[in-house]
Amino acid sequence: MLRALAVGFLSCCLANVTWADSPLTAPRPDNTLRPADLDRLIAQGLRTQPETFSPCDDVTFLRRVTLDLLGRIPTVEEQRIYAADESPDKRERLIKRLLNNEEFGKNQANYWSDTIAYRVAPPELTFLEYDPFKSWLATEFNQGRPWDQIVSKVLTSTGKVADEPAATFVAYHQGHPQKLAAETARIFLGMQIQCAECHDHPFDDWKREHFHSLAAYFARAQVKMPWNKGAETVVSDKGKGEYTMPDVDPSKKGKEMRPVFLYGEEYNTGTSDLERRAELARLLTDEKNRWFARSFVNRAWERIAGAGFYNPVDNMGVNQIQLLPEVHEALTGHFLASRYDVKSLFELLLQTRYYQRQMPLTPTEQALRFEELLPSRLRGDEVFDTLQTALAVPVVKPPTAAPTDAIRFPPPGKSIRDAVVETFGYDPSFGPKLVQRNMSQAMLMMNNEELQAQVNADPASGTVLSKLLQEQSEDDKLIETLYELMLARKPSARESGLCREHIQSVPNRGEAFEDLLWSLMNSAEFTTRR
């Protein structure tokens, strides 16, 4: 099939819209913020005025906010409903509606599951299964469970992963005290303390005793990992034993450590596994430990601005560069005052002029300093969910191959969703400069048989494209629909002209529109959040 239509011309047209200005007011006594308060703080940090945050048009806003909250682009129907809404508070109401959509929890679950999973080494003879964990997390976020309660459950759960999905974190780290100490600090506190496992941290204040005292909270966690089925992994209490910090001299006996939360007081030895982990969860999520709230806020800010106050987001060490510190601290205060309300934090961020401003087509150095918003690449799950939203891609998971003498435990079959998520996936803790496009992604989108099957104009194929061709006889309207379907916007006049020229140059109308659809699917815009 001819794939000659250029994709470089695919750009978003921005139009001016009217803002409903809110008066700047003094911060509330309880430290919560209004969007105008936050805009003022951001502007002060950037040495400008909130009015300089030029708003994006409604079409751009709808795509951006739907991606950020639901992890997919808006459907054509959602685009048309929003375009028909002429109320002055349409953006505010849209944000609230999306936050109450069940897909919000799914998107959050995908992000946090990836945050944990990307640093978990695959064990031998076992294939880890994160779907139960994602399902549990999605329910927690959708029900409005505060972040401190979610993390407490993650740190303290015991039992079989299939029955207690929150136990995934401890289970898939195989109850290993050092791994759990390092990942607990990195993921939930934004602290890289793992360098202190073997020696005092060379660039931070962490000593070996800090790291190994934290590891002592997991001294009695026991994990039994079965062959082949990760969800059958069981977390339990081994019932005895204490944690020993290895001596720097391997020939000498190590030092028995009491559990201590970083700079805090010692906790008793001789206590059960659950008691230790519950005490750790209490100390870690206590409002006096602002690192817990600061870490979540840093990640939330990165997700809406493209870069964090600290980059990478899991390294907020005392010697690291912090951008807009006053904004970071004010948002941390808001998150604490809201009692770790995740939806409240995102609602605040997304209602600001700063978030709703125009974004450059390509990343700039100014964006890394927050003078502009930073375009970013979609995560793997967001790429597939956008494909499915646009093209209704069927997901059929092949069965696992039968065991053979050579392969006793064959890997589970991979669906098209698995392939897209794996190829486009990346560790969410990476800084923006480390998330790159690659040839594997391009080859998958251009050549994968299951995706190519959706770029089929034959009426017998039953694809979205084939149905649109039968329903719509006017080329201009069909061009517009395909742009809405794939990019969540209408084509510019120049784009429409180029598409029309190509369609008229191809004798077969179906093949011409196959070319257009294929080009849109393979454009950089399709897999970019801006």
Task: Show the helix and strand layout.
Layout: H1 35-46, H2 58-70, H3 76-84, H4 90-99, H5 102-117, H6 131-142, H7 147-156, E1 159-160, H8 168-172, H9 177-189, H10 208-215, E2 221-224, E3 234-237, E4 243-245, E5 255-257, H11 273-285, H12 290-305, H13 325-337, H14 342-350, H15 365-368, E6 376-377, H16 380-391, H17 416-424, H18 439-447, H19 449-452, H20 464-471, H21 475-487, H22 493-505, H23 509-521, E7 528-529
Antiparallel strand pairs: 1-3, 2-3, 4-5, 6-7
Which descriptors would you attach to this protein?
single chain; 530 residues; three-stranded antiparallel sheet; 23 helices; 46% helix; globular
Structural overview:
This protein has 530 residues and is mainly α. It has 23 helices and 7 strands. The strands form 3 sheets. A 3-stranded antiparallel sheet has the order 1-3-2, with no helix packed on it. It has a two-stranded antiparallel sheet with strand order 4-5. A two-stranded antiparallel ribbon has the order 6-7. Helix 1 runs antiparallel to helix 13 and helix 12 (290-305) packs across helix 13 (325-337). The longest helix is centred in the N-terminal third of the chain and has 16 residues, at 102-117. It starts with 34 loop residues before the first helix and ends with a strand. The model is unreliable at 1-27 (pLDDT under 50).
Strand content: under 5%
Shape: globular
User: Low-confidence runs (pLDDT<50, min 5 residues)?
Assistant: 1-27
The rounded distance between the terminal residues' Cα atoms is 31 Å
The largest beta-sheet arranges its strands as 1-3-2
Radius of gyration: 25 Å
State the helix count: 23
* Class from secondary-structure proportions: mainly alpha
Which percent bin holds the helix content?
40-55%
